[in-house]
Amino acid sequence: MPARGRDVLLEVLRTEGVTHVFGNPGSTELPLIDALAGVDDIRYVLALQEATAVGMADGYAQTTGRPAFLNLHTAAGLGNAIGNLTNAKANGTPLVVTAGQQDERHLVDDPLLSGDLVGLAGAVSKWTHEVRSPDELGTILRRAFKDAAAPPSGPVFVSMRMDHLDRPVEAPVPPRSEVDTRVVAADLARLAQLLTEPEHGQLAIVAGDEVAQSGAVGALVELADALGAPVFGSPLYGRSPFPPSHPQWAGMLGPSTAAIRSALAPYRRVFLVGGQAFMVYPRTDGPPLEPGTELVHLAPAPEPVARAHPVLHGAVGDPKATLTALLHEVHGRLEGVWDLAVDRAAAEQRAGAERETREATARARYGPAPMAPMAAAHALLRALPPGTPVVDEAITTGVYVRGFHHEATPDTYFFNRGGGLGWGMPVALGVSLAGGRSPALCVVGDGSTMYSPQALWTAAREQLPVVFAVVDNGQYLILKNLLRGMSGTSVEHERFVAMDLGDPAVDFVELAASMGVDGSRVDATDDITEVVKTALDRGRPHLLHIPITAR
């Protein structure tokens, strides 16, 4: 029998290394579901809502470093998925997103559950395409996997008419291509000159997500050590771009122009390694850099370079390949220039003292519920075995989650640069699944939890050992704080419209139980460590309800 569209799809998935399909099926996806019923090497991971399917695929792709395959249900399912697809695009997550379109012979009648899928997906995709004939399937799907992973990585969208998967295909399936995108930026000598000519203490480095995504953390550590330069994390970075315990680590830049300007004002030159230069939210006045501060920018794609901020020098290349090659040039220029041994020792001593102070401050805030957010975050992270991934959607408590996370590898910390709620819980499932069903911690706010509680059902179905720590202050505190900064009517009347979640209060333990997940309410900070360790030892999902204060 001639090959059909479904055979082409399965061949591409297998040769692209796909072992999991994430989705929520509908009538237009039934040909794919029927095809998967006859195979054992590709597993469908069921979500009860498309936002959960997107989040799982996002976490899986970020952990494996390869495009994940996502299947959505025509226009309605794609609409449900848009929120988390905006997050995937902002995070630069490589996803091959597909949806079933109605039968080609039926489209003339404008049938139920049809629509302009490519138009709907356009704003959240690198590119979109609706397959026009079964013979296109192989080429388009190969293109999708290649382009999702190419810098800048992100989601691509393919609409597949449901009848195409059951129709014969005459065109052969193109073989998988090996494409090396690890391009070294041009003129390394110039780049090395710009980094070494400032006097010691006059250069700072800012590291973005692209450092972690390209595997360049080790090379950046060596470069920072050679230059004696402090390393700041870009505002709201989503993956750890530098070891938080390293003496050259200067912390994350605050997401305001004033905070960035203040942190970088002492330096003559700033070397940015990453994509978007200086993300701020909400808008604040003034530029992020002082007029005399010069910017040197290395990015894996040309789009973000000089897009919003002028540069003294812009370079385009893979961060790992470029930094690795750059080190030789830098070492040659610095040989015998200065001895940084004393400075490094002093930096290590300062960093150690600062960590001890933060630890002592957090422990001093331990107490009964409602707990101090700083203490709750500290107790959660100190309960984890080394190497346990942490997915952070704790919003206002997240500053403490990030601050107490001292792991050195990017694959142990995940944060959402997209800002859309409902990301963290499903992402934690994808991270666990990609790690061979390994334990993970998801710290999530009460408001965020209610955006994707269906993730709990999938956690139970797949028996993924994720601990969901719901830090509950009963409100949208981040919005209240923004209103307080505006000093408007809400503050004058102490009336915050649509921001309190306590009436009725959500019983998160009962919610988890209804989805098949064990749960515990924790009423004292001292109890958190033992509860987390017990939950991890059981090897199945568990929800912790942790009441916290608003401060």
What does this structure look like?
The chain is an alpha/beta fold and 551 residues long. The protein has 3 domains: 5-166, Rossmann fold (3-Layer(aba) Sandwich); 188-347, TPP-binding domain (Rossmann fold, 3-Layer(aba) Sandwich), CATH 3.40.50.1220; 365-547, Thiamin diphosphate (ThDP)-binding fold, Pyr/PP domains (Rossmann fold, 3-Layer(aba) Sandwich), CATH 3.40.50. The protein has 21 helices and 18 strands. It has helices at residues 5-15, 30-36, 50-64, 74-91, 117-121, 137-149, 188-196, 209-213, 217-227, 257-264, 319-334, 341-364, 373-382, 398-403, 424-434, 446-449, 455-462, 477-486, 489-493, 508-514, 525-538, and strands spanning 20-23, 43-46, 68-72, 95-101, 128-130, 155-161, 203-207, 231-233, 249-252, 269-273, 294-299, 313-316, 390-393, 413-415, 440-445, 466-472, 518-521, 542-547. The strands form 3 sheets. It has a 6-stranded parallel beta sheet with strand order 2-1-3-4-6-5. It has a 6-stranded parallel beta sheet with strand order 9-8-7-10-11-12. Strand 3 (68-72), helix 4 (74-91) and strand 4 (95-101) form a beta-alpha-beta unit.
How would you summarize the topology of this molecule?
Elements: H1 5-15, E1 20-23, H2 30-36, E2 43-46, H3 50-64, E3 68-72, H4 74-91, E4 95-101, H5 117-121, E5 128-130, H6 137-149, E6 155-161, H7 188-196, E7 203-207, H8 209-213, H9 217-227, E8 231-233, E9 249-252, H10 257-264, E10 269-273, E11 294-299, E12 313-316, H11 319-334, H12 341-364, H13 373-382, E13 390-393, H14 398-403, E14 413-415, H15 424-434, E15 440-445, H16 446-449, H17 455-462, E16 466-472, H18 477-486, H19 489-493, H20 508-514, E17 518-521, H21 525-538, E18 542-547
Parallel strand pairs: 1-2, 1-3, 3-4, 4-6, 5-6, 7-8, 7-10, 8-9, 10-11, 11-12, 13-14, 13-15, 15-16, 16-18, 17-18
Helix pairs in contact: 1-6, 3-4, 3-15, 7-11, 9-11, 12-13, 13-21
